């Protein structure tokens, strides 16, 4: 009996040692993560496609239910009604630099009065229009823009400009007064909050950027930044302080929450990214992230845990709701994507500017 007890005790010690080793290598964390994943209730989905609206690179909805798309190839902004019929087109079908003309317009957002602001990427400017679409002004920013991808307002109507070509996020009033910028500095250090002076630089260090594409605020005041060419999503406090990143790590493992150190790598494995470009919030609790390099949408909890992905599958089908495993497939069939650039969530529906397929897709997730 004493020998039996001794053998059991020895076995327990061995098990504890093995589990400790696995924990140190993050292997046990992966097993535990997979167990959590498999218990997630899955949604089902139905998809509607909208064609014949040019080559949309963005999609935004106003308070009246009209939609605004930036046409990547047509260099114009289209205002569409709730049935996606054309109300008005702003800009010619060729690139231009005069007021009211565009050269690769990229995104639209609205101020409290309903005026809308268009990031005019290749013209390195942001233009302001009235609610009826009349040109009002070119915003004279105190800090020159190098190539703005998107510009979105927070709840106080401060403007956050993802300046793609300067690798910096700029905070400004809607009239152009500089409130600060964040990113890496040319001396190799990182900002620790909004700075009013200095020059930005490309960086893969946490808190730095390489071709950032979008920044959005959650209801609890956390700012999420799509750091596209660093293949990660970062988050910051309202005062511009770094709070972590998610994606694939250099050792090949995936983050399982917001990491404060390390660098990201490109991957097609679910939970990692290949050029993420846009994001929005689902019911205020989850994050939908669209990738350009991987033709899919991924969903994460706000604490940075992977919850599933949506898109075309390797067996020439489309996921029916959020899928946990498998790799995405580029395609032209409804529900698959090709070089998609923008994503917005309105109600239970996810709207995707499926740029490479010259269409919008509306995905309705339901139990």
From TrEMBL:
Pfam families: NHL. NHL repeats lie at residues 93-132. Transmembrane segments: none annotated. Keywords: Repeat. The keyword Repeat applies. One of its GO terms (biological process) is proteasome-mediated ubiquitin-dependent protein catabolic process. GO terms for molecular function: ubiquitin protein ligase activity; zinc ion binding. This is NHL repeat containing protein. It comes from Berkelbacteria bacterium GW2011_GWE1_39_12.
